[in-house]
Automatic annotation (TrEMBL):
Signal peptide: none annotated. It holds the Pfam family SCAMP. The keyword Transmembrane helix applies. It is found in: Membrane. One of its GO terms (cellular component) is recycling endosome membrane. Keywords: Membrane, Transmembrane, Transmembrane helix. Residues 1-12 have a biased composition (Polar residues). This is Scamp-domain-containing protein. Its main location: membrane. The chain crosses the membrane at residues 105-126, 138-154, 181-206, 212-232. InterPro entries: SCAMP. Residues 1-30 are annotated as: Disordered. It comes from Schizopora paradoxa. Coiled coil: none annotated.
């Protein structure tokens, strides 16, 4: 038997001894390239969908701006809508809970004024002393306090936070003006809330229960509900008044800035939007 030459084959000599044994083959390279292309296509498709969504949102916003914001408050069934009021759209997300609570407190105040007037009607029916005077007072409260509280303390703080969302076109002093209006008139309102003896107030309520009689007792119960409304909106407004005051000072707003804004723009700053 002939001896085999161990050096006859050159195959092992032609291989790179330092080559990675896991080096990819052409088929493996093709698979990697295909997977990369698929991932890129999926990412591109996702970006296209996001871009389309943004374009649709922008188009919708531009359409709304073209059409203009139609007045929607007071809500129907009131025959006339006088202003535009939309907390979710106009107020920055971080401030929406605060403004919603203030609006709810204003609604509590409105309901309290109505109940206060109804209680005074029962005062008249129960022939209480000064019942006619109390009824007239309650009617004046309903219109003057109801309307002026919305215009002089709720609307300013609403507009102030609304203009924070539009700060690119509104100065910080504008915000100071609105907040200072709120501080002044809401502070006055809080002091008035302590004085709840007018109309169906504390004295009239006590008088109803001590007098006796069905009408007087009904008047006393309704008047108690009105008193509870005064207390709720009073304490609630005091709580948020302090919160807004702290935030106002932390942000560096001041009465000087508010006076500057008022001197620059006058009453226009109160009525303009954005």
């Amino acid at each position: 038997m002939a001896n085999a030459n161990p050096f006859a084959s050159t195959h092992s000599l032609n291989e790179d001894p330092f080559a990675d044994p896991g080096e990819s083959t052409p088929k493996f390279d093709s698979f990697i390239a295909s997977s990369t292309r698929s991932a890129s296509a999926a990412e591109l498709s996702q970006r296209e969908r996001e871009l389309s969504a943004r374009e649709a949102a922008l188009a919708q916003r531009e359409q709304k701006l073209r059409e203009g914001k139609r007045n929607n408050w007071p809500p129907k069934p009131f025959p006339y809508q006088l202003i535009y009021h939309d907390i979710d759209e106009e107020i920055p997300e971080a401030s929406r809970p605060l403004i919603k609570r203030l609006y709810q407190l204003w609604l509590v105040l409105g309901a309290t004024l109505v109940v206060n007037m109804i209680a005074c009607i029962f005062f008249v029916l129960s022939n209480q002393e000064d019942a006619g005077k109390d009824l007239g007072t309650s009617i004046s409260y309903l219109f003057f306090i109801g309307i002026l509280s919305f215009l002089l303390w709720y609307r300013p703080i609403y507009n102030g936070y609304m203009k924070v969302a539009a700060m690119s076109v509104t100065s910080a002093t504008d915000v100071s003006l609105f907040k200072d209006l709120y501080f002044f008139f809401c502070g006055f309102h809080l002091l008035f809330s302590v004085y709840i003896t007018g109309g169906a107030g504390l004295i009239a309520t006590i008088r109803s229960f001590t007098k006796g009689g069905v009408m007087a007792i009904i008047a006393g119960i309704i008047s108690t509900i009105a008193l509870a409304g005064w207390v709720i909106q009073g304490f609630g407004n005091a709580l948020y008044y302090r919160q807004i005051w702290t935030h106002h000072n932390t942000e560096g707003h001041s009465f000087t800035k508010a006076k500057t804004e008022l001197a620059t723009h006058g009453a226009k700053a109160y009525f303009t939007r954005g």
